Amino acid sequence: MTDAQVETKQFQAETRKVLDIVINSLYTERDIFVRELVSNAADALEKFRHQSLIDKIEFDAHVPLEITIDCDDKKHILTIADTGIGMTREELETNLGTIAHSGSKHFFEQLAEAAKKDVNLIGQFGVGFYSVFMAAKAVRVQTRSWDGGDGWEWASDGGGTYTLSPCPGLHRGTKIIIELKDDAHTYASKFTIERIIQQYSTFVPFPVKVEGKTVNTVQAIWTRSKSEITDEEYTEFYKFIGNAVDDPMYRLHFSADAPLAINALVYVPKENFEVLGMGRMQPGVNLYCQKVLIDQHSENILPEWLRFLKGVVDSEDLPLNISRQSLQDNALVLKLRKVLTKRVIKFLAEEAERDADKYREFWKTFGIFLKEGVTSDFEHRTELAKLLRFESSASEPGTMISLDEYVGRMREGQDKIYYINGPSRAAVEYGPYVEMFKKRGIEIFYTLEPIDDFVLNHLGEYNGKKLVSADRADLSLPETTPAASEEGAKESGEPLAEAVMTSLCRWMKEVLGDRIQEVKASSRLVDSPAMIVNVDGYMTSSMERILKASGQTEAFGMGSKKDMEINAKSPLIKQLAGLRESDGDFARDVVEQLYDNAMIQAGLLVDPMVMVQRNYRILERVTGKTAPAA
Ligand SMILES: Nc1ncnc2c1ncn2[C@@H]1O[C@H](COP(=O)(O)OP(=O)(O)OP(=O)(O)O)[C@@H](O)[C@H]1O
């Protein structure tokens, strides 16, 4: 080959950064680079198998589908070759010169962070191939595509550049020739490689030959009967399919013949990588037909909100030569998706019943996905609602209960399910919204995540009972028993007369202007002097909190409209009625402060500077430094 044929290229900037992380921070668990390369080889073989079902392939049609590994422990060279789909020159350049993800600074920071924490996490970022530089001084990738075009060689030492040059005489597939670093010579030992294959790649569905000997057992575990499979085998398979090192939290292995022939083996992992800050997960379940991979990380086989599951679904009813594009609207695939989703939901409901504590752990980690399901998957919304868990006024702090439990102990005459959103249990319990619930002994859900309000709003009702937020303006609670209300009246003393209240409300509305739609006498405040409530049809306080936090204020064109309720029995309100007459300016300050306090209790923002100034005025007044206005 002449020098003129060798082209030197720069890695994309992001790729260089990834290489830098791989080379400099990932020293532990080096073994995984072998797993990454073997799994790339297996993917390439799967892709070829799939292609050959769709197209009639002439070139190298009879080359067997396999992975061969050679170890040269004299020259310290490890070679991993497959007879898979291969790569064209353009594919080589895109696949091994750039990173598929849109590279942002944040992404690389996350990657570096993940690399420090747990080397297994790098698989989640798709830096698979580059992990070879943990052990390699120099790497050559020789490849020829299934279409029979020219062969090419990619070579790099993991620095800033790589070369591309023609490579004649290759068969279909890819060969990776790795010159090992001085401290990584062990990877040219047949024993090391055999051990790693046994550990990580036993389930690769093609023969893996080390020095001519097949070292893996090629099997499709999901087609075997449950009673024949040990827990260890299940866990090993999970690690293989999920690229994981932990044990799964749950596993579901089931077969069905009607309405479709299905063999499915799916797992719930222990960790939620999205919560760990690693961006959106890709779906983790692969679709097979008669043990042939049809769609890896399938987006079609389960709804998006179930993307945290890992595993395999095999249905022999699907046509083998179905193309990936046509999966999306294939009637059989849609049916399969329906059956699977229902089965997974049923499984989770059974697990919740069987071991409630374990289910709570699951809920803490993956509940967010089920909430996403409630808001996005209309078809399964009602079934999914059974799986929701929240704290409530009747639950122990930190313990969550189901909607069924709530409904099971609803009071006579109660036909609604109540909830209130807040930043913490303490904030909710000391807030004004739950006072009447406590007094009347009506249970109320405490929804402590900002998104919860949105979820319950979407759900709308459960078991025919409306779900109602306690900060709504038009809330009417079931009547209390006469004994309870008498006791309440005794505690709080005489309320302000109705006429005084009406006039006070009107005046307070004048003071507050457009910030409030109406000031009203409250029928449900017990101790607190005032609270902010949401007018039906407008944005709720928790929606407003979410939008403000994300920098959007005028979303959905809904705007926000609030009422303020005041408590006619509260000493502060009673005194305010008098103060209004004797010291109007001071009374105005008190109204403003009442409003700000109520806003804060609703979790909404107020202007801190204005509030602090006013607060000082009030303090000066009560400490007697300012004489009352004449
Ligand atoms: N042996 C191979 N044969 C054909 N193509 C390959 C081979 N190895 C890698 N590739 C191509 O290079 C791409 C990049 O590989 P890399 O391992 O970095 O990421 P990935 O396989 O897409 O993601 P991950 O390893 O995280 O699953 C692959 O998607 C594939 O297209």
TrEMBL record:
Transmembrane segments: none
Keywords: ATP-binding, Chaperone, Cytoplasm, Nucleotide-binding, Stress response
Major subcellular location class: cytoplasm
Chain sites annotated for binding ATP: 36, 40, 82, 87, 95, 102-103, 124-129, 174, 324
InterPro entries: HATPase_C_sf, HATPase_dom, HSP90_C, Hsp90_fam, Hsp90_N, Ribosomal_Su5_D2-typ_SF
Compartments, as annotated in UniProt: Cytoplasm
Residue ranges constituting the Histidine kinase/HSP90-like ATPase domain according to the UniProt record: 29-184
GO CC annotation: cytoplasm
Residue segments, region C: 546-630
CDD domains (UniProt xref): HATPase_Hsp90-like
Molecular functions (GO terms): ATP binding; ATP hydrolysis activity; ATP-dependent protein folding chaperone; unfolded protein binding
Region named A: 1-324
Stored PANTHER family: HEAT SHOCK PROTEIN 90 FAMILY MEMBER (PTHR11528)
Free-text function comment from the UniProt entry: Molecular chaperone. Has ATPase activity.
Sequence similarity: Belongs to the heat shock protein 90 family.
Subunit structure: Homodimer.
Protein name listed in UniProt: Chaperone protein HtpG
Origin organism lineage: Bacteria, Pseudomonadati, Thermodesulfobacteriota, Desulfobulbia, Desulfobulbales
Gene assigned in the entry: htpG
